[in-house]
Task: structure prediction
Amino acid sequence: MVKHVILWKLKDEYKGAAGDEIRKGIKEGLEGLKGQIPGLVDIKVNIKPLESSNCDLMLDSVFEDEASLKGYSVHPAHVEVADTKVRPYTAGRVCMDYEVENDQADHSL
Result:
């Protein structure tokens, strides 16, 4: 199993209440990919960080293996969401991918 975690910062003009609909759109778009992409086990997007956070959104996803993650990155459904709901509104992105044992992958995210 592979965990794929991304943290994004929104562009300044979409901070705070101005970005509420954008954050919701990103969440709906990415979470809507579940069941569409081979090897994608689970996907959740957190859009409500605490004040102490220095990012605006977090993607937490689980894939069967590294090959599934690579397939996700180029899958047309994912590319569509990334190009229309994520990239136009985000200013920064940090990603970490790592392997976990099957019993360590939290499927209930």
